[in-house]
Each structure stands twice: as C-alpha cells, then as structure tokens.
C-alpha cells in the first residue's frame, strides 16, 4: 500500500494497472490529469497527503503519500515533522493531526466530511458520564471531536482499544462513544465497561442474515468484520479487526474468497494489492468519506483550503489523551 512520502509515487501506468478493475477507462481519462496536477502541486507546496483506508482507489493509489487506519495516521503525524498535511479523510482525523502536530498546517478538502460517531457525543455528555461514574477512567475512541478528546483520560482506535482499556489503572471504564466496539472490548477485558450509546451508521446496518446467505452461497468464504459492527455480526465472523488488521489478514492468509464487513470502498483498495482474492460482500458506503474527491483535493491544494484549527486550550488537553494512547504498547 502507498507509503511514498511524496517522492516515489507509482508511475501513472502502474496506478492504472492497480485500479483498472474498479475505474472505467472514461473515468481514468478524467482522473489522470487531475492526479498529475495534484502530484505537481503537493511537491511545489511541500504538502503530504494522508489518506484513510476508506478513500476511493483513485485517491488511495493515485495521490496518497501515506495510507492506513486512524492509529497509523496518528503515529505518522506524531513522528514526522511535516510542515503541511492534507487529510483525505473525515474531519476528526484532520483535527487529530493538528492536535499532535500544532505547528503543522492541516488542510481538509471538505468541511462536510463528518462522522456519525463523532456527532453522537459532545463534551457535556462526557462530563455527565464522569459524574455518574466518578471512579472511572474515560477511554475515548478517536472518532470524536477535539472537545470530547479533551474531556478524556486516554484515546483509542479500533486496533488498540483492548490494549488501551487493559492498560488503565481503574477497574471501571467509561468507553465513548461506540457501543459495538465497547462490547468487543468487554469480551477481551475484565474491566467494567460503561458505554455511551453511539454507533457508526455505516457498520450498524450489517445483519447476520446477510452473512449467513454469503456462507450458503460461498461455503469457503472468509468473513472479516470490523468491531464497529453489532455484536451478533461480530459473533458470526471468522476474524474481527481494525481496517489495517483486516487488510493484513488478507495479505497473509491469501483466502480465495473474502467478505469484508466494513465500509466497502476498502475492498477495492485491498483487492488492488491482492488480485488473487475474490471480494464478495454486502456493501455500505460512508457518505462522509465520499465527500472527499480528487477534484476537491486539487481545489484544496490550489486555494489552501480548508485550514483546520483547534483552540489551544482544547488542543492541549486533547493532546494529553492522544499521547497517552500512543504510549500504550500494541500487542
């Protein structure tokens, strides 16, 4: 997957070879000059593009310098002294980069690229949970606003949530905001988990019946599920993991057929790298991620928009929660 740091992008003919099964020739004729101009501008302006795994293939393979899940992108932002970053992802991800790298200029191509989870909870909700469970530590999923992170003791991602919770000294944990991820963590922890009732609109729609139908049609299929899916869907899976963990499973196990029960844009990105695996799945697209496009990335680079800012008093407290997460060993 891309890890180019803006200097060693795949030649455009190799990008086409990667994505030709997911993009039509007429679409490629439109995308190709835009990709070329984005590459030129990011070098001219010294901008690094970070792209989440849910971005479409033309962004993921065409213009991204670094790709991954939220944890990987957070690590990159924390470890590298980058003067300018463009986040091809949703707004809370851009906020997180700004929090961990306050001297970095962070652009996001669309202010409408939000998140149903992030919008399900606010700072006052966290304070009310603390009042209800005064001895609990607050573990907050990174899919939240900077103000919510600032009210937390430590953040987590789907890939390290269990490790983060088990690292806490308190036996009582307030887990915010995803109830399905909280249930997954509870299965792997002796802590008492008190959760907010949030859910991801994309992952919450998957149902066990669809998985059963897939297994009936394809008895050899590997069903891989993201932990933001409902518990009954998780229980029907062959493997549960973050987006990066799901991709690693496919690369290492090389299953003949797989169902990726997560945001379905990711299937094309992994399939481009693993052409011998057949991807069969029910589909759920994130409307927020789809608000990022090549055209909007180009406009963002041309106009230096939109510049993400976080109030210093909020950023400092949120940074403490993110730093605490980054110190947790991922096992």
Tell me what you see in this structure.
Strand 7 (172-176), helix 9 (179-187) and strand 8 form a beta-alpha-beta unit. It is built from 15 helices and 12 strands. The strands form 3 sheets. It has a 4-stranded parallel beta sheet, with helices on both faces. A 4-stranded parallel beta sheet has the order 6-5-7-8, with helices on both faces. Strands 10-9-11-12 form a 4-stranded parallel beta sheet, sandwiched between helices. Helices cover 43% and strands 14% of the residues. It has 331 residues and is of the alpha/beta class. It has helices at 12-19, 25-44, 57-60, 70-79, 91-100, 123-132, 146-150, 161-167, 179-187, 208-217, 231-235, 243-253, 265-273, 294-303, 312-326, and strands at 48-52, 66-68, 84-88, 105-107, 137-141, 154-156, 172-176, 192-195, 222-225, 239-240, 257-261, 278-279. Helix 2 runs parallel beside helix 14 and helix 5 packs across helix 15 (312-326). It is globular. The protein folds into 3 domains: 12-115 and 289-303, NadA-like (Rossmann fold); 118-199, Rossmann fold; 203-279, 3-Layer(aba) Sandwich (Rossmann fold), CATH 3.40.50. The mean pLDDT is 92.
Number of domains: 3
- Average residue pLDDT: 92
Helical content (DSSP H or I, runs of 4+): 40-55%
Determine Rg (CA atoms, Å): 20 Å
Shape: globular
Point out poorly predicted stretches. Answer: none
CATH topology of the largest domain: Rossmann fold
Summarize the structure.
This protein is an alpha/beta fold. It has three domains: 12-115 and 289-303, NadA-like (Rossmann fold), CATH 3.40.50; 118-199, NadA-like (Rossmann fold), CATH 3.40.50; 203-279, Rossmann fold, CATH 3.40.50.10800. Helices cover 43% and strands 14% of the residues.
